[in-house]
Amino acid sequence: MLDFPNASEPVDDLRELNWLLPAPYIEVWRIESNDIDHYNHVNNTAYVAQIEEVAWAHSNAIGLSIEHYKTLDRAMVIRQHRLSYIQPCHLHDEIACATWIVFCDKKLRLQRQFQFISIKHGKTVFHAHTDFVCTVLSTGKPTRIPPLFAEIYAKHVVQDRATITQGNEQTC
User: Would 31 be classed as within a structural domain?
Assistant: First the structure.
């Protein structure tokens, strides 16, 4: 059971935290000394590295490994990150890091949403949105998302609560 100071009730499961979207894929990040900058809080580059780690862990969990990318000579490369640092994190903090696939057009683009919550405090400390484009791994040229990727990603696109409420569908 997770116990948050000043929280009304303890949380039994990380999925019960106040996530922006339903059905998060969650990894726990324990802040180590190599994540800390000269201000004694987590360096912004550590957050970006954690985004990459969580995204790859999620891709592996849904059935797409780096080997699939290499075999198909494809890459999902970052076009843009939008990062929001809400509260600082410090040495030995434990952070629940979640990701969702929120858009895929079956042509070229994929988007992920990220949210990091302090396990100790139960509060969001960081969130991000990343736009990816599919490229040929060997040349870097943009190309269509392979059918295997579209099929797997389509099963895992998560709609925001407003879209779900309105009954709109967003698919890969």
Answer: yes
